[in-house]
Amino acid sequence: MGNNNNDNNSAVKIVKNIAFRIYRWDGANPDDAPQMKVYEVPVYKGMTVLEGLIYIKHYLDQSISYRASCRMGVCGSCGMMINGKPLLACQQQILKLETDTVELRPLANYPVVKDLVPDLTRMIVTHQAIKPFIIRRETPPEEIGGEFHQSVEELVNYLQFSYCIKCGMCMSACPTVGSLPEFHGPQPLGQALRYINDTRDEGFEDRLAVMDTAEGIFRCHFAGACSEACPKGIDPAFAIQLLKGEIVRRGIFRKKAGASAALMPLTQENPPRRENIPTPPPRTVE
Amino acid sequence: MRESKLWFMHILAGGLLIVFLGFHSIIMHYDTVLGYLGLSSGDALDFNSSVLPRMKSVAHTTIYLILLVIGLYHGLYGLRSMIYELAIPRGAKKAAGVFLLLVGLAVGAWGVYTILAGHLNPPPELTAVLGG
Asked: Which residues of chain B lie closer than 8 angstroms to A251, CB-CB?
């Protein structure tokens, strides 16, 4: 497209040129001051910010770094600050921004690796710490040999929180994460509720030890910026408030959790697993 | 103590403060409105006719003690939360937390002493006025 902008045979019609102001800084040369470099990008209707970046990478400056993969809002790789807001570059159409300049910076509240690539290590480590997997007290899930029964209502209790793609944009929008780096942040806390609300899970106490600290869940002020930023429509701010209530109910008033999901009896309607179903992969998290 | 317990007490104290400070505002500052409703018991700020009898009343003394404790706890925990959200070393945060605890205990003890002294041993000249 880049060399054929004015080609009559071009498949797309260029609407106008847009200036991309892009944050440039390389963690390998930390003493160099960050700078904003401007690139002129021909934009067609429906073109996304990520496509603009791909254009720049292909035709204007191959040294620019950004992270992207699926290009369809599923992988969560291309989160960045677009005109000051945390957005997925693959979902944001350039013309919908209604500006002649698109300013791109790496996600706020994270260290920068290079240019538009943030270092998400802290979020991933905290996410790992809340144990984002089903915990069974007696028998590990892979040794149970059956399936758990879960009603639609029980599924709805955690379903929206399971849509998280770990893009980290909620953490970037959170004002508390900005001022208190030790705060767990909305992504891990939202995922804690996702598992605590799952009737198959029995790991509340394990997660409580991580969350119930001076810099933990109770530092959330319910600003709600995380929910506004989430590209998957999850409401982590609401999850955190539910989690606070759950911690008070179970941790202080010693209310017991609801009954764990029961194993489905092996009947004709629910037959035993067929022999040719492959076994699940080995656990990746201890 | 787990943070959830400290936080829950903060919320509880906040709820109680709304109730107690609500009554405080109505009794101390809205006596004109109370007068319209026929509930006014005179000038709430008059020392001899209002303040001193409140000091001697067991119910009011109890309310003052509760207000002191919940007000101090709510305020100091709130201040601690703000300090914990600053980008300062963790050791400094813990030191600030301990300092605020000591301040709370000291101010609380002073407040309890003042309230109980007013209740148990009002100034003699005023006791004479009240006929105690």
From this structure: 2, 4-5
